[in-house]
Amino acid sequence: MSAYTSAVQQRSLTQRISEVHERLVKARQELAIVEEQLVVFAEAADEARIRALVSETPLADQEWQEARRHEEAMARSRDAARARVSELERAQDELLHKLVV
Questions:
Q1: C-alpha span between 25 and 5 (Å, rounded)
Q2: Is 11 helix (H, G, I), strand (E, B) or coil?
Q3: Structural domain containing residue 36
Q4: How many domains does the chain contain in total?
């Protein structure tokens, strides 16, 4: 392999690492936001559950079920965001390994 080819590959690899790193930073920020939102949804669902237990009305039970569905949807979003972060971390590690080797 010529020095030129090696330098071009090195530059390309460095650029890919930079791009993955930027995506990883954004994914981590999104994960932090989703985790904060999940806390709010979980608290709202818990409050709705308590209201449903105390009032024992169909409306309160319906509100609790809806709040619980929102919490579950946010938990799925959190899990997806965590998976994206993990995937990007693995990709970054692989690229860094190629850069070192």
A1: 30
A2: helix
A3: 3-100
A4: 1
